[in-house]
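re: ur msg from earlier - yeah i can do the 2-acetamido-2-deoxy-beta-D-glucopyranose complex, just paste it... oh wait u already did. ok heres what im feeding in:
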Amino acid sequence: MAADSGSTRLRIAAAVGVTVAVGATAYLLWRYRRCHDLPSERRDPDGGPASALTHKSNGARNDVSLQPSVEACQVAKNSGNDLFRAEKYTEAVECYTQALALCPSDRSPELATCFQNRAAAQEKLGKWEAVLHDCSRAVDLNPKYVKALARRTRANEQLGNKTAALEDITAVCILQGFTNQSSMLTADRILKEMGREKARETFRNRKPMLPSKQFIRSYFSSFVEDGIGDVDVSDTVEDSSFITAIRHLAAGRYESVHQECEREIEEGGRWAKEAQLLRATFLLLVGDGEKAQKDLEFLIASENIPAKVIVNALIKRGSLHMQMQSPTESIADFEHAAELAPDNADVFHHRGQLFMLLERIDDAIADFEKCIKLQPDFALVHAQLAFSKYRRAMVNENESAVKSCLIELESVVKKFPKSTEACALYAQALTDQQEFPKAEKMYDNCISLEPDNATPYVHKGLLQLQWKQDLEGGVGLISRALKVDSKCDFAYETLATIEVQRGNLERAISLFHHAIELARSEMEIAHLLSLCDAAHAQSSVMAKYGLRPPF
Ligand SMILES: *[C@@H]1O[C@H](CO)[C@@H](O)[C@H](O)[C@H]1NC(C)=O
Ligand SMILES: *[C@@H]1O[C@H](CO)[C@@H](O)[C@H](O)[C@H]1NC(C)=O
Ligand SMILES: *[C@@H]1O[C@H](CO)[C@@H](O)[C@H](O)[C@H]1NC(C)=O
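and the outut:
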């Protein structure tokens, strides 16, 4: 959970629509309200191999009778533990087998320990089928046996059963009260692998869909020199398809833009290159990365095209590479763009966002600063700069710097009172600092500044959960978000996560599928599929242990 709610934070920071799933957001809400009645592991009665030596003098080694008895079992088990410590695993397995034969059949705790210990030795020998078998026996005897569950996770992974591995590690996380970093990271890793495996096919089969108007608008406003916005439609007498496209764009008739661009390109009109850039942009927005890439490559390889068009194409291809998880290629595109146009603010703004996603905070800060030198009134970038500095101060655990960054964020909000992004980023920092009333006020500001933007409703909803554990209030606000913008994937995702925690699995899954329909990249789909898998695993573990959901 080190990554905190990083992915939601980055959603705002990355106006480009590139989202990177970081951290176990799947279990986000567990932290808001820890389950107080978590079952505890039954005490391992005789320790595992690690504590073997302490038991050495305990048993009457010479008195071993071959009648089943707890004592005889202990002696055999302790010999097994000694052999384990001496790295004689095959012999250790034999001792544990003997211990199991000597253990009275009604002594579940001892039996469970022997199975678990034998599984440990089998693991050292790489006999994964045997590990799986012995761990399962141990877990049958003691369902809250964390060590056996953790070991069975590894066996299931080795044997290629990720679903079973996920269920086991989820049980471990729940039994440990979500306090063990290494278990959480294992859960996160398995979830990510499962998501990635299924995402490709889901992504190929999905229908491209335009995001909400608000999203498109804010995407375009994250560029100030894109070579599209410069085309002055009022001043032109000619009536080309591209000019019509620009008029549609300006009026928010986004669904008509693509077609006009096609026409301009087919006609080989005066604005064919700009039209191709605009078409590529819309292909990116609907999540058709493959076709977008073709257009962008064509433009980048073309001769005699306006510098701004080529630079913008490089920025967009760079972002696309990042979406496809190729950061090296992404950075190369931005380097190329910066060489071609060292005074184009967009290059540094978008590369700064890329660096934030890559957690290269110092590089991000340097780029945002360059961008502001070139475009001193770019409110969004001022906010992102202050927020990046805040993040750096948090990472460095520098309290005085955190304080001054909060002041800086506040002053950005004062300087640009109309900037929703400035308010939203300040609100996120305030939430982080548990300054809930102030954060809420900032989200209210966002909502009144941009009433058709659904994101602040979702954040405000999450705030109600974190601050007041007010489930109804939170859900109400997030549902409002969906009324404001039925294409807000973040709202679907958040609501789905809450429904998982409430134990409404079916509703959760249907909400996740809505979010998947709206996702714009394979990576986002992988993230959502992981959340879905986490939901299945959690609900099955909770049912098994008779746990109540955290809400
Ligand atoms: C994976 O494990 C689960 C639960 O133990 C089991 O029901 C399922 O059959 C296993 N799948 C495979 C392919 O072995
Ligand atoms: C954390 O959990 C793992 C199992 O996933 C376990 O091996 C390890 O000992 C635990 N660490 C602590 C500090 O409890
Ligand atoms: C904390 O940040 C301040 C700048 O705000 C800096 O002067 C100081 O050296 C930093 N302290 C540490 C320990 O890094």
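cool cool. Confidence is low (pLDDT under 50) at residues 1-64. ping me if u need the other ligands too
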